[in-house]
Amino acid sequence: MSKRRPTAAPWADRDIDRGFSGDDGNNNQQTLEGEAIPMQRLSRDSMSSTFSADTPLMATVADLDHTAELNRHNDEHSFLPQSSAVGRTSPLNPLDNTFKQKYAANVVSNNKYNFLTFLPLVLFEQFRFFFNLYFLLVALSQFVPQLRIGYLLTYVGPLVFVLAVTMAKEWHDDHARRRRDSEANGQKYQRLTATGGRQVIASSKIRVGDFILIEKNQRVPADVVLLRTTESSGACFVRTDQLDGETDWKLRVAVAPTQKLADSAALFGLHGTVYADAPHKDIYSFVGTLRITSSGESSSAVTLPLGVENTMWANTTLASGSAVGYVIYTGRDTRAAMNTGHAKTKVGILDTEVNRLSKILFLVTLILSLAMVALDGFKAVWYVTLFRFLILFSSIIPISLRVNLDMGKSFYSLGIERDREIAGSVVRNSMIPEELGRIEYCLTDKTGTLTCNEMELKRIHMGVMAYTLETSDEVTRHVRHHARSLHHHHQAAESTMTSASSAPADSSGLARAHHGGKARRDMPQRVFDMVESLALCHNVTPAEDDDENNDNASSHQRMAYQASSPDEVAIVQWTEHVGVVLCERTISTMTLRLDALGEDDSHVEPPRLVYDILHVFPFTSESKRMGIV
Questions:
Q1: Which residues are catalytic?
Q2: Tens of pLDDT along 404-421?
């Protein structure tokens, strides 16, 4: 692990690599006369009115004399492929809000019917089944005097009752959908204002171009570009289980220049535009640009590419901290709405079987009717007699069966919602709850689909040695022994320092003591190296503990971790259990706290090891592993 710290901004190389190395596909790679267009450095003189003096800006152009030439070509779409040129461009801070009316309102609507379409659609859906259509024809036949057999009510009444029960179920389901939509549309959010204040508005009032403050565990109301987070690195995590069904947390990164502003109110001092590609369904791709100008002068503009890692889609949930986002898509233009199909009438296997059996019974009644007419000798108007026999035999097909099925489904749905053992269950459609009883096999592509997606490290092998949870105290003893030797070596080196450098040293000396020796490693050092590797090779970020009231770390203190994979969290929790705690992480550094050494004296703060993150090799399906330098 290298101790050299990079002098450039920690996010600069990362954004450049992602935008132009080709790792993200072709979304962000543009050409100008056959050459890749690099990102520009913002001049501190030209941007002094917008950014503070210590604000780091993106830089890849070595010769700043080329800036003027590049600016002539870097318009709003200069980072976009030609196929994605049809999109939308909205100002960062518009002088008026007229442009917002061009886009869809941020209204969630999943209802299936309205006042005018309810009755015709329900009747059409019901009479598509042969079962209901048969009894409709039987009831209509009683209006013909030659075919009337009994009282009209005995044929019309049961059919009307069956339709009434079905319409009541459909109305109840659609009313529940409207109620859920109303709750989502009425959820309150904070919109930033130009005066530096916050205005509480409903989700349905959010428009394209608004700056929205999203708190932890709050649903994202619209598709937004992430501008600022409470983390100094600009990183945050979102849960996407309501969007793609995955329970893993996804890492999102704020746009670097806006993250480095003094506060959120400084966003209103920016001038520029945000370009977003046309709305589409793909939740894993996004092509856009953020163009920032100085005091409205396009000659000193800089264009930054935006990717999917800079966005938060609607219906995702912010899992850490709070964030400020710039709204780019609302309502039906959001990824969530475009991936949600219109509500349809669902038909279960049981309904299909009943419909098929009713056709078989109709054939039986037809054969019986023909037999009765044949025995009568096909006299005179025999076809009238045939229809009268069909009506008489219609009782063979029990219309009460449909009523019993509908009532049973409604009762079963109500029982599911009130079952204490599965509290919180919501029946969104009462037409097919009986399908749960038909499940024989459940196929899933990952554990998190059907479980809590929580893992625990139970066993680890080191060649000829193996450690389990029961023998983790032995690992802790080895870690403490090696950490104590490192600490003594560090204190000895610190005591020999000259008076000019006699100030308390940081953990770099401790790290040199650990990595500087080339002698044959003993068992404590081998165990410590193994634990250290596990504590470093991951993408886990420790969460801030709001209940922590003192600066001294305690060995009994549990940390909360954020990661996109539960197995990484399980590994880091195990290293914490044996005394090596991941206590801090930024985009460029990682800090480990040796709690195993602090157990000897609770009044002494455990030493810390600081590592510089030079590069991260992400996990891919091809390599099936990740790495870190």
A1: 445
A2: 888 888 888 888 988 888
